[in-house]
Amino acid sequence: MLVALDDDALTHAVSVHAPTAENPAGFHRLVGGSVEPGERHRDAVVREVAEELGARIIEPRLVTVLENIFTIDGTLGHEVVFLHSGRLAPAPSRRGATLTEDDGAVVPVVWRPVDDAAEPLPLYPHGASDWVRAVAEGRA
């Protein structure tokens, strides 16, 4: 997954997902996807961003690895997330941007504030907000 900051490091690109039992207002998720068999994590995030957003990542860099255990509509999930940072070229529009997921679903993309204390929608994977702030502040 990718922490994709804007040029001012005040917002970052996230996908917007529909309501679930656990998140009745929906939720935000960092951009990215799954590693395919035989693929390295850096190559996966570059490929996923190209496929989903039609963009390239400028200077992708591994930030950390997160273990995310979650429940979505009552189903337990578990993922290991290689979290990268980098800028998107071209950057998604501030209005009306979308990405296309592997299953063909089209979801909105928005620019979420780095300082997201007032943001009503949760950000996943769990713990990502702390790393987004660390990247924006140059600490990661």
Summarize the structure in words.
This protein has one domain (2-136): Nucleoside Triphosphate Pyrophosphohydrolase (Alpha-Beta Complex). It is built from two helices and eight strands. By secondary structure, the chain is α/β, with parallel strands linked by helices. The model has no long low-confidence stretch (mean pLDDT 96). Strands 6-7-2-3-8 form a five-stranded mixed β-sheet. A three-stranded mixed β-sheet has the order 1-5-4.
Break the fold down into its secondary structure elements and pairings:
Layout: E1 2-3, E2 11-17, E3 27-30, H1 41-53, E4 56-72, E5 75-89, E6 98-100, E7 106-113, E8 123-124, H2 128-136
Parallel strand pairs: 1-5, 3-8
Antiparallel strand pairs: 2-3, 2-7, 4-5, 6-7
How would you describe this structure in keywords?
140 residues, alpha/beta, Nucleoside Triphosphate Pyrophosphohydrolase, five-stranded mixed β-sheet, three-stranded mixed β-sheet, 2 helices, 41% strand
Cα-to-Cα separation, first versus last residue: 15 Å
Which range does the strand content fall in? 35-45%
* Backbone structural class: alpha/beta
* Helix content range: 10-25%
Strands of the largest sheet, in order across it?
6-7-2-3-8
* Poorly predicted residue ranges: none
SSE series: EEEHEEEEEH
CATH H level, superfamily name = Nucleoside Triphosphate Pyrophosphohydrolase
Output the CATH class name: Alpha Beta
The largest sheet, given as strand count, sense and whether it forms a barrel, is:
5 strands, mixed
The figure for the number of domains is: 1
- H/I helix tally: 2
* Gyration radius over CA: 14 Å
CATH topology category name: Nucleoside Triphosphate Pyrophosphohydrolase
- SS elements, strand count: 8
Shape: globular
